[in-house]
Amino acid sequence: MKAKSLKMFVASFISLCAFTATMPVLAVNNQTNGGGGTAQDSTAALIIAGSEKCGITANNSNGGLGVTVTQVTPGKPCGDAGIEVGDIIIAVNTKATSTLRQLDDAISNATGAVPVIVQDVNSGDIFQIIVTFS
To answer: Where does the chain show beta strands of DSSP type E?
Structure first.
């Protein structure tokens, strides 16, 4: 019963996020800067400031509903909790993480046992993982 309730909650949460005006625009930034060089690709994987704390590198997901994990460091909290490359982090501690900035803010402020809502990229299942930060 709890798993079904969690799936219903997450499905509602995703639907709500899909209709908000704060969803990121996912476009490749190919503009040139003033020095003649090309600006950095906005879809490239970025190391988030909280990555040392949690042990992941992430990228905005293509659908805009979460952040895709591109690298996991073994022995760090996220890796120990079971987060894997390809997983999509939807929320951290009940806060939506539809952008890298939101994920960084949520992880930077996290302490103790923190619930993380994750979608498994292979199965499509959505579940909660508890990540313990020191």
So the answer is: 56-60, 67-72, 88-92, 95-96, 112-119, 126-133
pLDDT value for 21: 36
* pLDDT tens track for 35-76: 444 344 444 445 554 556 888 988 888 777 899 999 999 899
Question: At 92, which CATH number?
Answer: 2.30.42.10
- Residue 20 in domain: yes
- Measure the CA–CA gap between 130 and 89, rounded to whole angstroms: 12
Q: Let me know if residue 11 belongs to a domain.
A: yes
- Window from 27-31, 114-118, 125-129 with minimum mean pLDDT: 27-31
Q: How far apart are CA 37 and CA 133, in angstroms?
A: 40
Within a domain: 112: yes
Domain count, the chain: 1
